[in-house]
Specification:
mainly alpha, two-stranded antiparallel sheet, single chain, 2% strand
């Protein structure tokens, strides 16, 4: 039942956000999606993580331009799907992570509440609503005419794909940390360390959020 609910949540989010999977350029000029996609394309053509990138800031080491997890993953996807444009493949990666966010939230709530009903309710709330509009006036002012959750808004309008990837990984990292704290096996500690690293290597904002969440768990 848990796997079926998780699959239904993912497919439901894919259906809701289906237009985001389409190729083409968004109308918003504030979006930095093209910059992120160019990083992934460069890495797909020059996979050396310690190489030199002459295209940004008049040149800099590749490992200094951005956190590696998201561009490296997108670069691997570009190599797997060479028949699609690089910017489209990058979008497919980040929008898929966007749709997986409610799934990881469902698993996170289920881990602590042990109730599929409440976990599903939390995941549906996370899918359709955003508390940020009520808490932050600046976020509310940026809502626009069509209501979408804030995580979708920042992806479409500003191109902040790494934020959504970090949000998707965050519940998994917290689950791994809790199991490592309560368990007695080395593999639980190793998994927690890997999960913490995955979030931190994806997005700085998500890393700060992870630190606050760990403090709250303590």
């Amino acid at each position: 039942k848990t796997l079926l609910i998780a699959a239904a949540l993912f497919l439901g989010n894919v259906a809701i956000n289906a237009p985001l999977f389409l190729p083409g350029e968004h109308k918003y000029r504030d979006s930095i999606e093209g910059g992120y996609a160019s990083m992934a394309r460069f890495l797909s053509e020059h996979p050396n993580p310690f190489g030199w990138n002459p295209l940004q800031y008049k040149g800099l080491p590749t490992h200094d331009w951005y956190l590696p997890a998201r561009p490296d993953t997108a670069a691997a996807a570009i190599n797997v799907l060479p028949f699609l444009k690089a910017e489209h493949v990058y979008r497919l990666v980040v929008v898929t992570c966007l749709c997986l966010g409610p799934v990881t939230m469902f698993l996170f709530v289920l881990e602590f509440v042990r109730s599929r009903r409440w976990a599903l309710a939390a995941a549906l709330f996370y899918t359709l609503l955003s508390v940020s509009y009520s808490l932050f006036p600046a976020v509310k002012a940026d809502q626009g005419f069509t209501y979408v959750p804030w995580r979708v808004q920042v992806l479409v309008k500003y191109g902040e794909g790494p934020h959504n990837v970090g949000l998707m990984l965050l519940p998994l990292a917290l689950m791994a940390c809790w199991r490592a704290a309560c368990g007695r096996r080395f593999r639980q500690i190793a998994l927690a360390g890997a999960a913490l690293a995955a979030v931190t290597l994806t997005n700085w904002v998500a890393a700060v959020a992870l630190a606050w969440c760990c403090l709250m768990m303590l």
